Amino acid sequence: MLDDYEMRVEEWEARHRRCAAAVRGEETLFQVTHEVTAFHIASIQGAALSARIVNLANGQVALLNSRNVYSAPVVARALFEACAVPLYMRRNLLPRVEKGRVDQVHRMLYRLGLGTLMDIAHQPWKPIPVKSLIKAMADEIGDVMGDVVPEDRVHIDALGITEYGEAIQYGYSILSELTHPNQPAMTPASGQDAQGYTTWTLQPEVNERVAGFSVRPTWYSMLAGGIALDQVLEQLETRGMVLPDSIPEFPADELKGAA
């Protein structure tokens, strides 16, 4: 599985280079046209997102190799959430692009660029909840993975699950359990000796459960997220939608405090 995992990471490294090159090209074009396109903004987000995904994925492998049992699932969850962003874009952004709704596309790209928790910046716009990213991922992944060769499904079949959407929800719930300070996350350090006494290990071995639940969900989330980002950027480049070069105006129902 780790060989396939490294392949996914290499794909995201190449994706980062493509996004960075697209940003440079759009910045050069802006000097002539003075127009900001949806493709330009999405490419900036794609370059930043792919850099984060590559670093989180490499960090997860490093943590597993160095027996950091408690840290690996935390990084895996952050990686999983990052991979959900392109699927959210595919589900919620592309339909608005296809209908030519410039203002809605502008607002969504702006909110995606700011992130999901904007309270720190004291911004008035509603954040995009992480649960919305995960739901979009679960809703979209079946279509996104439809052309994946059957052998790639082994990473889901190994969980006893045959539907991609169900695998997303299950994988994320396990990563959350291993991230929060509850019983499943506390147990790796404890065991029993031959006499039945409790034993403790400050640096426990990485068992198959922790490794599997860290690597397997992020493997298929990296694959699906990459496919979705490629599709989003291809559509945006083809359509060439021009956005206002300003902060978008948000309606009342997209502001904090709205019902």
Task: Provide a descriptive summary of the structure in words.
- With 259 residues, the protein is mainly alpha-helical.
- The protein has one domain.
- The chain has helices spanning 2-33, 38-65, 71-92, 94-98, 102-114, 130-144, 154-157, 164-179, 183-186, 208-239; strands at residues 36-37, 190-192, 198-200, 242-243.
- A two-stranded antiparallel sheet has the order 1-4. Strands 2-3 form a two-stranded antiparallel ribbon.
- Strand 2 and strand 3 (198-200) form a beta hairpin.
- Helix 2 runs parallel beside helix 5 (102-114), helix 2 runs antiparallel to helix 10 (208-239) and helix 6 (130-144) runs antiparallel to helix 8 (164-179).
- The chain is elongated, with a radius of gyration of 20 Å.
- The N and C termini lie far apart (46 Å).
- The model has no long low-confidence stretch (mean pLDDT 87).
Notable characteristics:
single chain, 259 residues, two-stranded antiparallel ribbon, two-stranded antiparallel sheet, 66% helix, elongated, mainly alpha
Walk me through the topology.
Layout (H helix, E strand, L loop, with lengths): L1 H32 L2 E2 H28 L5 H22 L1 H5 L3 H13 L15 H15 L9 H4 L6 H16 L3 H4 L3 E3 L5 E3 L7 H32 L2 E2 L16
Antiparallel strand pairs: 1-4, 2-3
Helix pairs in contact: 1-2, 1-10, 2-3, 2-5, 2-10, 3-6, 3-8, 3-10, 6-8, 8-10
Give a quick rundown of the structure.
It is built from ten helices and four strands, in the order αβααααααααββαβ. The chain is mainly alpha-helical.
- Given the helix and strand composition, which structural class is it? mainly alpha
Number of helices: 10
Enumerate the strands of the largest sheet in spatial order, edge to edge or round the barrel: 1-4
Shape: elongated
Strand content: under 5%
Mean pLDDT: 87
Which segments are poorly predicted (pLDDT under 50) over 5 or more consecutive residues?
none
Radius of gyration: 20 Å
Biggest beta sheet summary: 2 strands, antiparallel
